[in-house]
Amino acid sequence: MSLLTEYHAQHWGGVKEHIEALMAHEAFSPFAAEMIRYQMSTGGKRIRPTLAVMTAEAFGGSATSCLPFAATVELIHNASLVHDDIQDHDRTRRGRPSAWVAFSTEQAINLGDLLFVLGFEPFNRMDIPDSLKLNVMRLTIRAIGELVDGQVYEFVLKERDMVTEEDYFRLVSGKTGSLFRLAYCGGYALADDGDRHAGDIRTMGEHMGGLFQLRDDLLDALGLKEGRPAGSDVAEGKIAFPAAHYMSTARDRDRERLLAVLRLPRDETPAAAVDEVLQRYRDAGSMRAAFQQYAQRREAILALSCLKENGDLRSRMREILEELEPPIKEKQL
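Above: the chain sequence. Below: its structure as C-alpha cells.
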C-alpha cells in the first residue's frame, strides 16, 4: 500500500466527518448542501490534506488534532477547482460534469464562494490554544490571497505576447503553490514545534507546488491524464511550462504561431494545430526542459535541512515523491 493510500485509509474518514458535519448545518439550504456534496465527491488523491497531517505527525503533533485543518485545506482546494473549471470552460472534473455544467455557471460561482467561506468553519472544531488557532487562520487567509492572485496573473499572462519561465513560476507559486504551502505550514504550526523549521517548510511547499504543476503539464502534453486527450492545455490556451519555455527560445514567427493557436477559442482549435504545437515543444526541447525542472525541484525538496534533521519526514517525503514520479520515458520527450 502506498503512503498516500495508507494516509487516505487512515485519516480521510475523519476529514470527511468534519466536512459532513459542516454540510448538515441548518444555515445551508438543501440545494446548497447538494452542490457541496457533489463537488466533494469528485474524488482525487487528497494529497494536500494528507501532507498537512503527515507534517504535523512528523514533528510530534497529533493527526486527530490536525483533521479539522485538513478539512479546511480540502474545502479551499475544491473552491478553487469550482472557479477554475468555470474560467477554463472545463466541462468535466475527474470524469463527471463540472459543477458549472451540473448546476449552472451562476450557481457554481456561489458554490465556490460558499466553499471558501466553509473552509474557515473547521477552526471552530479545533481544540487548540487560541493563539495557535489564530496563527493557522492567518496562514489560511494568506494562502487564499496568494491563490486568487495566481488566478488573476494567469489571465494577465494570456494577454502577453511573451511569457518567460520566470513568469510561469510566479503564476504557479500562486495558483498551485499556495495550497501546498498552506498544507505544510499549517501542519507544522499545529505540531507546535516552534518556528525553527518554518522557512524550510514554506520552501518545501513552494517546491512541491512547482513540482506538482510541472508534472501536470507533462502528463497533459503526453496524453497521460485520465479522461483528457493529449494537449488539452494547448486547446485551452493555458500557459504551461512547455509554452513558456518555447516562447523564451523561439524565433518571433514561431512564437507568433504558438500564440495564434493558444488564442483560438477552445472549441475552434483543430486537433492538427494541437499536434503541431506539441511537436514544436518536442523539437525545441521544451518537454525535456519541463522534466529537468521537475527533477530539480524533487532534489531541492530532499536537500532541505528540515528533512536532513527529521528522518521520519524525509522517508515519508521520499516515498510520496516516488509515488508521484510521472510514468514518462526519455523517448517521449
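Residues 100 and 108 are 5 Å apart (CA to CA).
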